[in-house]
Amino acid sequence: MSSMRLEMVMKQRLATELRMAPHIIQSIEVLTLPALELQTFIQQQMDTNPVLESSEITAEEESTPTQEEKAQEEIDKEEPPADEQILNDFENMEAEGWEDYYNRDHIAKRNDGEKDKKQEAMQNTPDKPLSLQDFLFQQFGLLDLPEQQKKIGEQIIYNIDANGYLNYPLEEILRTLEPIPLPSEAEQVLQYIQKLEPAGVGARNIQECLLLQLSETDTNYHVKKEMIEKYLTDISNNKYPKIAKELGRSLEEIKEIVTALQKLDPKPGANYASDKPSFVMPDVVVELIDGQYLVRLEEDYLPHLRINPRYLQMLQEKSDKLSKAREFLKKKLESANWIIEAIKQRQQTLFRVAQRLVEHQQEFLDHGLTHLKPLKMQDIADDLQIHVSTVSRAIADKYMQTPRGIFALKFFFTGSIDKKDGDNESRVTVQERVQEMIQQEDKKKPLSDEDIADNLKAVGLEIARRTVTKYRKALKIPSSRRRKQY
Asked: In Å, how far from its chain's centre is CA 143?
């Protein structure tokens, strides 16, 4: 048998790699941050870097020692600090359904007479709204039920989703309890829960949800019940004549009953609190002043950063005590300068991009959606002589407040559709045209997607029927068959 020989050989290889410096990476990350995240980022940097501070500190605040500083002075009188302790202090700082048919400071920033903006924001923040499960638990707790049924009920409520539906079979839910309850007992408890508010909660499907919202005292209760149980799909597809024929009712009666059914809520839990309310803070504000659109950045929420002068002075001192701390301070100073520069570059880039957007889309600001122009990110990049990826990062998750409302910056970039005269029109504008045609159509003879495509071609827009279908679905407009009124 031949033996295998293993060898380790060292070889030199010359290679070229392109690596971005850390401060460039940080500048890119800061550029992509929307307003609220930038605010959090700045606060984190101020908390972890002692060299960074807000320039809004007054001279009085700088000169007046804090209680901690006074106490430290007393200690210093008794025992001078060692350079190891100073270094440790700095290191500690560093470590520190109805389907679609129904879906219609580290440093306080206080000047004389000025309130703390953070505290004011907290005071103006509404209390966390009541969640659906909390609301159900409150009601269920008022029922006088045996202990075992209370445990069953609590387990059922835990499994009700945000829309108010029970999406798991009772048998599966009961397996988590000891001893396992009888299915009949669990069904009884579920019926108690289904009588709680909001009406329709605890249902296992859309039919049960709508049936729970019916009143047995309603004169049309039985026909409504039958329509929910048998004809939901036909209602969704606008097949009223078929329903009227099979139920022996007039078309007008069916239309009235459908109108009443449409007032039921297919998602009874959706009106209650979700886990995280979402807020939009505009990064850019556009105002119409003396006939001109003026662009400004919304910067009131951002502290103005600077380098703490005390630490600059420590770096200039030649004391042997601070020799170990000086290297740490240099790194923190370098990091602080990068952060300040990155934020400055972000603001400048965002302002320039926003200004160009307003210039390109002034007709939209003047006249509305039908005047939104086709625009590509490359167009703005060419205007500003920057890379298109910089434009993309600058507009990511950022919003602009205009006289016509608040829009994501990405909204202003739209593709185009060619016209016969050689001009082009933005896709958003074409969508608006489609919506207007449908709003003005004869509801007894609604326009098909082919009809809409032909009408657009008549005004010079070459557009395929499938594209009209795509736009109509994006606008959540049902098909012509479902829009037809009898």
From this structure: 38
Give the model's pLDDT for residue 355. Answer: 95
How far is it, in rounded angstroms, from Cα 118 to Cα 124?
10
Q: Hey, where are the domains in the chain?
A: 132-261, 415-486
- Given a contact cutoff of 8 angstroms between Cβ atoms, the answer to whether 287 and 403 are in contact is yes
pLDDT for 318: 67
The yes-or-no verdict on residue 288 having pLDDT over 90 is yes
- Per-residue pLDDT, 403: 93
The residues that bridge with 288 in the sheet, in sequence order, are 293
Residue 419 has a pLDDT of 61
Q: DSSP letter string over 143-162?
A: S---HHHHHHHHHHHHTB-T
If you compute the radius of gyration of the chain from its CA atoms, what whole number of angstroms results? 33
- How far apart are alpha carbons 423 and 223 in whole angstroms? 56
Contact in structure between 198 and 232 (CB atoms under 8 Å): no
- Superfamily of domain covering 415-486: Homeodomain-like (1.10.10.60)
pLDDT in tens, 96-111: 434 343 333 333 333 4
Residue 442's H or E segment, with its range, is none
Q: How many residues are there in the chain?
A: 486
Scanning the structure block, which residue is given the tokens 């302002």? 351
Q: Quote the pTM value.
A: 0.56
